Amino acid sequence: MTSVVRLDAPLVVGAGVAGLSVALGLERAFVISTKEMGSTWWAQGGIAAALAADDSPQQHAADTHAVSGGLAVDEAVAALTTGGPEAISRLVRLGAEFDRDDEGTLLLGREGGHAARRVVHADGDATGAEVMRALNDAVSTAPSIEMISERVVDLARQGERVAGVITANGKNRVIYTSPAVVMATGGAGRMYARTTNPPGVTGDGIMIAARAGARLADLEFVQFHPTALNAGKDPMPLLTEALRGEGAKLVDASGRRFMDQYHPMAELAPRDIVARAIFWQYDRGSSAYLDARSILNFHERFPTVTAHAMSVGLDPSEHLLPVSPAAHYYMGGIDADTHGRTSVPGLWAVGECASTGVHGANRLASNSLLEGLVFGARVALDVDEHPGEEQSSIEVPKEALESPVIAGPVIEELRQLMWDRVGLIRTGSGLWEARNSLVEMEPVLGRTIAGRNAADLALLIVMAALRRSESRGGHYRADYPDEDPKQAMRALVVPGAADTVRIT
Predict the structure, then answer these.
(1) Is 271 considered catalytic here?
(2) Which site in 79, 283, 300, 456 is 20 to 30 Å from 213, CA atoms measured?
């Protein structure tokens, strides 16, 4: 059964830090999301902002550019870093409680790639949860925001303009029309067998936008967090970068450090370098551990990491913690400008599902929560300034009304394939193997909406990785290990729009 509900205010798809930041900035909004907890809740790392007297947004911008592989967009980075201090102030006004010293001053930590201490945390390693508590509390008391708990499976259009969304509940479909749609659906970490991302973070929003004709960007750039707890869990528990900022070392089984062989900043090197160093440890038949035993009052300072480690019988103050890289953050996504505008009228994108170029080929630690906060506020202003009109008739993709939604067990084969062939270390031959295997999987995956999204996005990532015959940021080709100055540019993809049916 299909029904139509006409909304008279913007519709935000996603209820993480980016989505709720948009909603709180709008005059009136509807927020639609599933009941699954998104990546923001799991974020242990903090929020970077130039708050110290000896720091500045310009220095923060310089650090952001330095790790970006030369691809970060100046305008986007400037918007992010200049908006940082106000983003923190706004959260504090909403009631967020960040870690402070005895005099009430915000404690600032340092993480990999940062030249200064500028990272605020909450409860040591539970920043994401505190941010979401504050945002949800604000939303719950905002009469202008209405929450809808459903799963979005596609976009509705009128001509070239996005005019709403289609949701699914079993065989039932609801079409919500809206004057503006903001995609804030998160990243794609669950495309990989090893990931820190919770269930549901599979890039669906990116492919939903692509089927409506939205341009995509930087699809080859996947960031792998260096230190996930390697203890057989899925998702893999994150061991926050703040641990290395506070003195934790990476060692082999004999307790010998190895990061100084790879980069002058050793454990504080950019994430892609640390992740590959750990990968190579395993590739050589060795192992990798995080030694955090020198950190005083560990249990009190990092309660989330402590709980994860204790759950597998490890005490961080006494034991080495086995670590592995894991897919963590996606720099690719829906091509969007600094106001969240996409190539399709009526559609905005924000947060991890968007690719503004703010991270370039590699994200600086603790810039992700900041991105959701800063760009969420910017998108809200732009949406309110460019209201659409209510549409009398709309078009929706045929498959969105008919196909089952949930992918079957073959999705696990795709995840393992992506880890093995399209992970930290890529080669032309391995990428072609992945491409051919994905083509073989597609008929089965394509039977469901989620399976088709995964297969299509995986193929796009593979083809983007094949086209970039160099190594840059989160994209490393063992057969092309150096950067090629001629390829120092962002890569854009324009997928075809889906076949539609008209509904009046």
Answers:
(1) yes
(2) 79
